[in-house]
Design goal:
The protein has no helices and eleven strands. By secondary structure, the protein is mainly beta.
């Protein structure tokens, strides 16, 4: 496990957990909800482009590998996950929950 964050990623008031981890094939994020019994259910699994984990300075200069933030100021939260590709070029991957499809989709960051 590389990093864990919790937040209102579904933008419905439910606090979910996002877990970023490395596998033999790459970096993955699992978004887990909580059921009535307390068990966590898998909401979505995202395979992130890039072979190497990354971090960025978030808010008060704190380094993080995973963040929940309203990137595009639309009142809903996105998930930000930095990585590096095989040439060590940094990528800031941003994902937003699509309630119609019930999954997270990549979005373009602010210019």
């Amino acid at each position: 496990v590389l990093s864990i964050v919790t937040g209102n990623l579904l933008n419905d008031g439910q606090i979910v957990k996002a877990v970023k981890y490395k596998t033999v094939t790459g970096i993955v994020i699992e978004i887990l909800g909580s059921g009535d019994s307390g068990a966590r259910s898998l909401i979505d699994k995202i395979t992130i482009p890039g072979e190497h984990d990354g971090y960025f300075n978030f808010q008060s200069g704190n380094a993080t590998q995973l963040a929940v933030i309203d990137v595009d100021d639309d009142g809903t939260f996105e998930l930000m996950a930095p990585t590096f590709d095989d040439q060590l070029v940094a990528h800031l991957n941003i994902f937003k929950y699509n309630p119609g499809l019930k999954r997270f989709e990549p979005i373009q960051g602010p210019e």
